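Worked example

This section walks through a single chain of length 268. The input is the sequence exactly as stored; nothing has been trimmed or padded.
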Amino acid sequence: MDVEWAPPGIDTSLPHSARMYDYWIGGKDNFAADRAMGDAFAAAIPSIRTMAQENRAFMHRVVRYLTGEAGIRQFLDIGTGIPTRPNVHEIAQAIAPQTRVAYVDHDPIVLVHARALMVSGTEGETVYLDADLREPGKILADPDLTATLDLERPVGLLLIAILMLMADEDDPWEKVATLLDALPSGSYVAITHPGLDFDPEAMGGIATAANQGGMTLVPRVRDDVARFFADWELVEPGVVPVMAWHPEGTPPADPNGAYYWSGVARKR
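Given that input, the structure is written out below as tokens.
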């Protein structure tokens, strides 16, 4: 794509995870640096595009589960990425039209598309926050969030393929704990995270490629992913490969084919 169309403040010479994801799933909102890094990942893990699609499919399933079975009527989606239909509010509001959704990301391109495309139905409401997971307190205190979500009522927190963008020294566990502590009983959290233990050599290769390209990418083993759920009660089947969490239709022949751990937990 031509550099000229980029929003002010965006450095198109550096890859960005949301735009790489957009490239993998066939979108058009990406630049040469994003495609080059995306191709480097694909060289290490040829199935990376399928993995991105499976991660998206998990999001669809979990939103349907939380809205339809768990009765959640408000969502906080952090690390939204470039909108790809159906989005969280479209899935949830198809089941419960009154559902409210707060989307959070901090990429200018995501901001442009989110404000144009993430339009709620007449009964529910959506809002987009330009904010960073590294500052969870600011997210929780944002007046647009508190005007949209009632943090005294259960919330579905979505952290889909976002936590790997924080290094261990940034203590992502503490950032997630701040969010979990702020949510009331009956809330849920859903997480996906690339797993180092599926293929340590391949996952180590993409982490190195990301670092060389100026990105932080930290695949983690299952135990470290499980730590994010703290003492919340895991929904069966627990922390499992993303393809194995409540699959629809015929179960996958090889649930380890997408190198992501996933899980959903409820606050008692």
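What to look for: The beta strands are 74-78, 100-105, 125-130, 156-160, 188-194, 233-234, 240-241, 260-266.
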